[in-house]
Amino acid sequence: MTDLASDAADQPTRSAARHDRDQWLRVVFLRCLLVVALLAIWQVGSAFTAAFILPSPARVWRTWSNLVATPGFWNDFGVTFGRILTGFALAAVVGTVLGLVIGASRLLGEVFEPVLTVINTISSAIWAIFALIWFGLSNFTTVFVVFMTAMPLILTNVWQGTRTVNVEFVELAQTFRMSRRQVLTKIYLPTILPLFFAGARLAFGFGARVSLVAESLGATSGIGYRLRQAADLVQTDQVFAWTLTLIVLMIVLESAILKPLERRLFIWKERVGD
Amino acid sequence: MSAVTLQCVSKSFTRRDGVQLEVLRNIDLDVPERSIVALLGASGCGKSTILNIIAGLMEPDHGALLLNGTPSDAFGDWRSMTYMFQEDRLLPWRTAAQNVAFGLEASSLPRAERRSRVADTLELVGLSQFADVFPHELSGGMRSRVALARSLAPRPSILLMDEPFSKLDPNIRSQMHAEVLRIAALRDVTIIFVTHDVEEAVVLANKVVVLHPRPGRVRLTRPMELPYPRDPVSPEVTEQVRSLRLSL
């Protein structure tokens, strides 16, 4: 009798697990189907258009394989990646420091709020043109554009983060006679970290995208420059190959670095639905 | 010797609308070493303010605070005093062991010493197996034990508690009372705690100070000489509870 009862109680959880796995398999299958369908549409489309408008998937694949084999590929790739990283790193440092400073003072917060809104409304293309005027055709043009796009995003998130700091925890640290610096590193930083991370992720994505705009306007190397060159010479397959490179890069960054890092950093968070 | 002495302490706050609010008036308090003193009173009688003044987080307007016989401004050993709050205030991003270690991080203990103290203290409150568990995975009683361990890890000579168990279920609460009594005897800690629960005061304290509100002042001080452990339903305890309730 008791066995029966426990069996009956077990049944729903076991079948729920199976249901979850089935659901997941179905999603994976449908995603594969989506990719195949898109490739098929692409293939059919390319059959009816000239290669300089829509090259076929096979042709793009060939171009990409050749492109990766050229020594210039890794050079351009490295240059662009380096510019994005530099701009992003500067934005992370400056955005975090400014966010903490503005967050620490109510007055500063109220003074700077409209400034942030104004900066956020300025298009990245405008920053690129300004950068071109100020810095000419140099690395710094791209770095500046990435910085101006990423910095406000990080600043805003860190600033919001300072508002979520729990006064009770600060008080607790004070009863243990902790210094201001200890309160900052042991209470403020861990509280802000999730919001910083969300902001940094967004900022990196935006930064990577606008870097290409900046490079196509004001650089003599890098992926953005190659894209424009390919477009000027109507080498549409090259444009597709570079685009493919960028997509692969972003997927690798997301699944190999950001996702695992996030999972590790925020292991302490309650899972939703628990 | 007295661990803590308050002499004629007064404190007022200025409310946001500019009105002066007298919170404490001429508080005299004597806490002998290794005693357990309960500050008992309804809300608004300045119990927490007294605790904050003793902890050095707040300056009295008038009067003096002596710690181990030394005036508070000449007292240097503030880390020998720890504070336990009404809420457990565990940092959600730290495991139980890391939360206990938090109490030690302000001092410059060597790493190995810190680790062994954390392990000892967790053992003391019976949570060794839960060292690597995060607060959200612990029950209310366990969280309270971790908070207690955090307060005990620096090996304080004085432990201040601000209604620390008021949010727990009654049976877990009496478990925590037994725990506190056991540890106080084991570690020679002087305990000053604030409560509005008469029974809690009678079960734990060997001296009960009854406060009256607006402004907070001492109504009476009564020694509790019943032997430990005190059963809350025994006639001696209920009699004390009854008579203290009348004075509230």
Topology-level CATH name of chain B: Rossmann fold
Number of helices of chain A: 10
Overall strand count of chain A: 0
- Write the CATH architecture name of the largest domain in chain A: Orthogonal Bundle
Percentage of residues in helical conformation of chain A: over 70%
Beta-strand proportion of chain A: under 5%
Q: Kindly, what is the distance between the CA atoms of the first and last residues of chain A, rounded to a whole number of angstroms?
A: 31 Å
Write down the oligomeric state.
Answer: heterodimer
Order of helices and strands of chain A: HHHHHHHHHH
State the low-pLDDT regions of chain B, or none: none
CATH superfamily membership of chain B, which one? P-loop containing nucleotide triphosphate hydrolases
Shape of chain B: globular
Shape of chain A: flat
What is the strand arrangement across the widest sheet of chain B?
Answer: 6-7-8-3-9-10
Residue windows where pLDDT falls under 50 for at least 5 positions of chain A: 1-10
Overall SS class of chain B: alpha/beta
What does the average pLDDT of chain A come to? 85
Rg of chain B, nearest Å = 18 Å
